[in-house]
Amino acid sequence: MVRFQKGALLVGPPGTGKTLLAKAMAGEAQVPFFSLSGSDFVEMFVGVGASRVRDLFKQAREKAPCIIFIDEIDAIGRARGKNVMMSNDERESTLNQLLVEMDGFGTDTGIIILAATNRPDVLDAALLRPGRFDRQITIDKPDVKGREAIFKVHLKPIKISEKLDIHKLAEQTPGFAGADIANVCNEAALIAARKGKEAVEMQDFQDAVDRVIGGLEKKNKIISPDEKRIIAYHEAGHAICGWYLEHAYPLLKVTIVPRGTAALGYAQYTPKEQYLYNTDQLLDQICMTLGGRASEDIFFGKISTGAQNDLQQITRIAYAMVTVYGMNNKVGNVSYYDPQQETTFTKPYSEETSKIIDQEVRQLIDEAYERTKQLLTEKKDDVAKLAEALLEKRSTVPK
């Protein structure tokens, strides 16, 4: 006898359409659809969450066949007993009741449970065993073909220019989820309306992408000529590194237009559609990110606070290479990443190992910085030309 599937877990980053897909399933099946968030079950009063789970399944049995959808299930489905200090009896009792209910009804009741999360790594193993969530359906960020199809959906209600290249738009928005693309289309329409245009053009979409990535343009921000010069050479350093390093992402645009709360300028790249990264690629990524700081050092003999975000990025990458991906000879093929222990204050290694990790990360970043300085010193004329062009035009696109 073939057993009917009881549940499916929708897994994917925020904005990829997990909730939308669940609603579409309910619409296509034409059955009652019970939708709740994981946080709806959790209250400060002990026992309330468990009683709500019981009530939900009681209603579902009365309306069967039906679909129950629990959004953000990690709010109640986190692994139990991993951290005594951060334990929550109410959340755990709610999870226990959910496990009992999922295992308690027969396969002929016609109840399907869907759940969505972007953190499957923190869920309790009992939730993921066969007989409860039998399937894990991955809903990842769309590739270039997927983005093009999503753009076509969101562009239907918008009057667009005949010259608009949707494929090029899809290529220039790597890493964008469906919600991001919808936001870009809406922003582009607003920008075109403010300019009094009859149709939305390619430039409006590029401005919308800039706004989504970097934030609102700060036209009233007063920046001194000396600061502008530092920003121009900083961004030129990023751009030239990205242009000459073999494994760096292709450069799309570089600008010194201040945006958002902190960005005084940025270099925009088009990341490749890939899922695996080798050591050379990550090292080139670190060098490209250090390009701004190295350029300031070379041209002005001093460094500014403008590299704060860059330093955060390279530190994260370097520690991941050493402690997560096993890309260090001294530490070896060991990964210290455990998502279930992320809220604890203890390290899964000794103080001696901790010292070695810190030394190796420091050495990795120092070597990358020296390599970056050497590259920018060799290409000093190119950095200067690009920086002066930025000071004149504020934004530039490589030819």
Secondary structure layout:
Blueprint: E1 7-11, H1 18-29, E2 33-37, H2 48-63, E3 66-71, H3 74-77, H4 89-104, E4 111-117, H5 125-128, E5 135-138, H6 144-155, H7 166-171, H8 178-194, H9 202-214, H10 225-244, E6 251-255, E7 266-269, H11 279-300, H12 308-323, H13 351-378, H14 380-393, E8 395-396
Parallel strand pairs: 1-4, 1-5, 2-3, 3-4
Antiparallel strand pairs: 6-7, 6-8
Helix pairs in contact: 2-4, 6-8, 8-9, 10-11, 10-14, 11-12, 11-13, 12-13
Structure described in brief:
This protein is α/β, with parallel strands linked by helices. It has 14 helices and 8 strands. The chain folds into 3 domains: 7-138, 3-Layer(aba) Sandwich (Rossmann fold), CATH 3.40.50.300; 144-214, Helicase, Ruva Protein, domain 3; 225-396, Peptidase M41 (Methane Monooxygenase Hydroxylase, Chain G, domain 1), CATH 1.20.58.
Task: Describe, in plain words, how this protein is organized in 3D.
The model has no long low-confidence stretch (mean pLDDT 84). The N and C termini lie far apart (64 Å). It contains 14 helices and eight strands. It has helices spanning 18-29, 48-63, 74-77, 89-104, 125-128, 144-155, 166-171, 178-194, 202-214, 225-244, 279-300, 308-323, 351-378, 380-393; strands spanning 7-11, 33-37, 66-71, 111-117, 135-138, 251-255, 266-269, 395-396. The protein has three domains: 7-138, Rossmann fold, CATH 3.40.50; 144-214, Helicase, Ruva Protein, domain 3 (Orthogonal Bundle); 225-396, Peptidase M41 (Methane Monooxygenase Hydroxylase, Chain G, domain 1), CATH 1.20.58. It is of the alpha/beta class. Strands 2-3-4-1-5 form a five-stranded parallel sheet, with helices on both faces. Strands 7-6-8 form a three-stranded antiparallel sheet, covered by helices on one side. It is 50% helix and 10% strand.
